[in-house]
Amino acid sequence: MGSRSFSCSCLFLVVLGLVLNVAVLCNGGKTSSFVRPVEKTIDMPLDSDVFRVPPGYNAPQQVHITQGDHDGKAVIVSWVTEDEPGSNSVIYWSENSSLKKEAKGQHYTYKFYNYTSGYIHHCNIRNLEYNTKYYYVVGIGNTTRQFWFITPPAVGPDVPYTFGLIGDLGQSFDSNKTLTHYEMNPQKGQTVLFVGDLSYADNYPNHDNVRWDTWGRFTERSAAYQPWIWTAGNHEIDFAPEIGETRPFKPYTNRYHVPYRASGSTAPFWYSIKRASAYIIVLSSYSAYGKYTPQYKWLEAELPKVNRTETPWLIVLMHSPWYNSYNYHYMEGETMRVMYEPWFVKYKVDVVFAGHVHAYERSERISNVDYNIVNGKCTPIADQTAPVYITIGDGGNLEGLATNMTEPQPAYSAYREASFGHAIFDIKNRTHAYYSWHRNQDGYAVEADSMWFYNRHWHPVDDSTSAQTK
Ligand SMILES: [Fe+2]
Questions:
Q1: Which residue, 106, 178, 360, 385, has fewest beta-carbon neighbours within 10 Å?
Q2: pLDDT in the model for residue 38
Q3: Ligand 1 centroid to residue 321 C-alpha, Å
Q4: Does the bond joining 60 to the residue before it have cis omega, within 30 degrees of 0?
Q5: Which residues of the chain, if any, have pLDDT below 50?
């Protein structure tokens, strides 16, 4: 055998070996073949139309709403006035009535290095009727602006409700596409579950807080009309000792109020709400979560309170994902997973939504709770009592897409794709919810990934997409 034919034989064996190796190891789910051209993510310039300041003296801007109590009969309305404090009140009335009511709020200001905020108003409107359209007016006295919202149906087990999922939105051109796609999606999300990383102002010199204002104006077109449920991400920390800013979460906590006290929480970073047929628990990846900490003790007491007969769907929001097979932020969620995953399995959480990784991924139902430091059982296993983990950090951000994935795709990863987009979690009744993920490059109605969720309490049969297509 000549040296040339010998080297050819070796090459053949090496290639055969690689093919067989890949065939053995690639037992995971689907890595989408869709490859989005990687372009730099660019923030929209300050004079973009989406950042336009509303006309009129002291006109309210950055209007946004969120749920204001534990069960959906209150709404926190927030807005900013720039010229003077103006009125803290909101005038509101139901569409069935001409009787106008007034709710009184408060305003706050804060400084961040050389930035001074406008007057940030928060007003909690309480004792609203369920399932009712309300009009509301802010800016009483100078320039008024009118908006509306629809309260959720009364909390109950078979109440249909449609949630949107957006994470890591930022204010890039891609962010604008994501928000537009969410607004135009024919499934019509009624409330946004936002999984953290709002404005990315901290990417600018001195965390230029003007970019918090532009973000507030950009998102007003949705957030003034439907509640956005807030989760804190790492870009909300704004810890900047080099410029004298040592109090974490300062811009975020001044600008975005959440009803944390209503669920017995002691800080606005972890809390819960009930909305229609869902019980939503928001956790903080960036607050202490170890044993004995306030967040740990709160969650330990909170999970047994969830009554699946009243709210069948148990949804958890956090920023840093526990199961992530991209080479970005790899294992950052691991320590929180070690602390809380046994509880999620015990209490049969239906789904966990996270952001942080700028891409999309959906897991199988898996758990990794058997490991006890001496038994070596540290591999995720299929577990029908465990949640599905979804990473939806693909809102648009400022830092670009996460395109680099760990290979081969792990068995627990059902679908992954590095594209910008949003998702919809559409609860039909106590047993079924339809989930879909929509990438920005497609038409508004196109579903790039989807799954029927079967409720873990009421209908705990295998709902993996592979089982559903059998
Ligand atoms: Fe993040």
A1: 106
A2: 61
A3: 10
A4: no
A5: 1-26
Alpha-carbon distance 366 to 344, whole Å? 11
153 Cα–ligand 1 center, Å: 32
**Residue 329 a catalytic site member:** yes
Long-range contacts of 21-26 (CB under 8 A, 24+ apart): 22/408, 25/408, 26/408, 26/409
Beta bridge partners of residue 161, listed in sequence order: 427
The confidence score (pLDDT) of residue 468 equals 78
Catalytic entry in 122, 329, 356, 457: 329
> 268: CA distance to ligand 1 center in Å?
18
- Taking the C-alpha atoms of residue 426 and residue 437, their distance in angstroms, rounded to an integer, is 11
**427 near 160, Cβ under 8 Å?**
yes
Q: Model-level pTM?
A: 0.93
> What is the distance between the alpha carbons of residues 7 and 11, in angstroms, rounded to a whole number?
6
Nearest to 384 by CA among 349, 354, 333, 433: 349
Count the alpha carbons within 13 Å of 104 in the hemisphere toward its beta carbon.
Answer: 0
Contacts of residue 440, defined as CB under 8 A and 6 or more positions apart, other chains included, come to: 174, 177, 178, 181, 419, 420, 421
Question: How far apart are the C-alpha atoms of 349 and 264, rounded to whole Å?
Answer: 20
Residue 37 and residue 194 in contact, taking contact as beta carbons nearer than 8 Å: no
Report how far ligand 1's centroid is from the alpha carbon of 196 (Å). 7
Tens digit of each residue's pLDDT (9 = 90 or more) over 161-210: 999 999 999 999 999 999 999 999 999 999 999 999 999 999 999 999 99
Residue 145: both structure tokens together = 């602006």
| 290 CA to centre of ligand 1 in angstroms | 20
Q: If phi over 0 gives left and psi between -120 and 50 gives alpha, with beta otherwise, what is residue 325?
A: alpha
Model pLDDT, residue 470: 57
| CA separation for the pair 70, 152 (Å, rounded) | 12
> Cα of 235 to ligand 1 centre, how many Å?
6
Rounded (10°) angle between helices 334-346 and 294-302: 20
